[in-house]
Amino acid sequence: MSTIQTGGPQSLIDQGAKHWLFVEGNDNSCFDPDVLRTLLKENDLPALNVSALGSCENVRLAAQAMVYQHKSYYFVIDRDGRSDDFVEKSWQRFPDPDTYNLLVWRKRELENYFIDPIYILQSQYLVKSEDELRSKLLKMAQKRLFLDVANLVLLELREALIRPPEAWFRNPDEFPDRSAALARLQGCQELTDKYSATTTLLVPSYRNERFDFWLQRLTGGKPLLEYGEGEWLLMMSGKELFSNIINEAFKVLDTEGNALTGLKKNTAIARKLLSLPLNRQPRDFQDLVALMKLRAT
User: Element (H or E) spanning 74, and its range?
Assistant: First the structure.
C-alpha cells in the first residue's frame, strides 16, 4: 500500500515521490483523494501517490505553478462551470505542460459518476429495489432542479469573470514619458474588450438567457425530469444527490455491526464499487487509469 503524505509540495519532494496526482479536498481523508486512491490501487497503480490540495481553484493554481518544474505532477478538478471544449481538450492533450497536466471531469463533480443508476445499482449495499432507487433519485433531483440551474449560471459567470485579459506591453520606445505610457494603458484594446465582455455578462437579460440554456440542457426540454432525457445526471450537484440517495437507499455496517453514516458511508460504498473490474467502471475512470499507466508505470 502506498504511503500518503499530507502537506505542501515541498514535503512531497523531500519524500522523493516521483508521480503525484493532486485533487480537491481539505485533507487526504476527503472523498476525492480517498476514492481515487482506491481506483488507482485496484488497477495496479499503487505507487501513484494521491494528495488533496484544497479547493478547485487551489488545485488549478498549483497546476500552473508547479507543472514546469515537476512534470510528473498531475491534477484533476471538478468541471463546475467550464465549457465542453475546455473539458474535452484537457483529456485530448493530457499530459501537456501548456495546459498544466490538468484534467477536468466530464461530469460536474466526482460524485456525479456515483449517482448513475446503471453504475450504483451494482453496489452490494443497496437495500431498495431498482425502481425505488430510481424513483427516489428522480424526486430528489426534481426538487433541486431550479436551484442547480441558477447555480450553474453562477459557475459559468464566475469562470468567465475571473479570466484575465491577455494584455502586455513590450516596446520601451512606445513609453518615453508618463503621458505616452498612460495613453497606451488607457487605449489598451484587451482591457476595453474585457470591460465590454464583463458588462455583457452582468446584464439581467444575459442571466435570463443562460438560465434558459441550462434548464433546457438539464431537462432536454421536458416539463419534468426523466431518465434518458437531458443531462441532469451529469450536470446537477452530484455531491448533494449522492449524499441524499446514500442516506435513503443504502446501508453499510462496520466490522462490529454498527451502521456507518456520513462521509464514512459514502466512501465505503464508492470504494466497493471501484473494486469492480475496470471494464465495469465509468468511461472517465477507465480513461484516467489508462493515462496514468502511460506515465507512472
Answer: strand 73-77
Residue with cell 484533476: 76
Q: Count of CB atoms within 10 A of residue 227's CB?
A: 11
What string of DSSP letters covers 91-106?
HHS-S-GGGTTEEE-S
pTM above 0.85, yes or no: yes
Residue 230 C-alpha cell reads as 437531458
Give the residue-averaged pLDDT of 263-273: 96
**Which DSSP category does 110 fall into?**
G
* Res. 17 pLDDT band, cuts 50 70 90: low
3-class state of residue 228 by DSSP: coil
What span, in angstroms and rounded, lies between the C-alpha atoms of 33 and 110?
A: 11
Encode pLDDT of 49-101 as tens digits.
999 998 988 898 888 888 788 888 999 999 988 999 999 999 998 888 777 89
Please report which helix (H) or strand (E) contains residue 75, including its range: strand 73-77
Contacts 24+ apart (CB under 8 A), 278-283: 278/43, 280/122, 281/39, 281/119, 282/113, 282/116, 282/119
What is the pLDDT, as a whole number, of residue 69?
83
- In this prediction, residue 164 carries a pLDDT of 84
The angle formed by the CA atoms of residues 296, 79 and 119, to the nearest 5 degrees, is: 75
User: Which long-range CB contacts under 8 A does 277-284 form with residues at least 24 apart?
Assistant: 278/43, 280/122, 281/39, 281/119, 282/113, 282/116, 282/119, 284/105, 284/106, 284/107, 284/113
- Residues 167/195, Cβ–Cβ less than 8 Å: no
What is the four-CA torsion angle of 280, 283, 289, 293, rounded to 10 degrees? 110
| 173-226 residue pLDDT tens | 999 999 999 999 999 999 999 999 999 999 999 999 999 999 999 999 999 999
Q: Which residues pair with 25 in a beta bridge?
A: 54
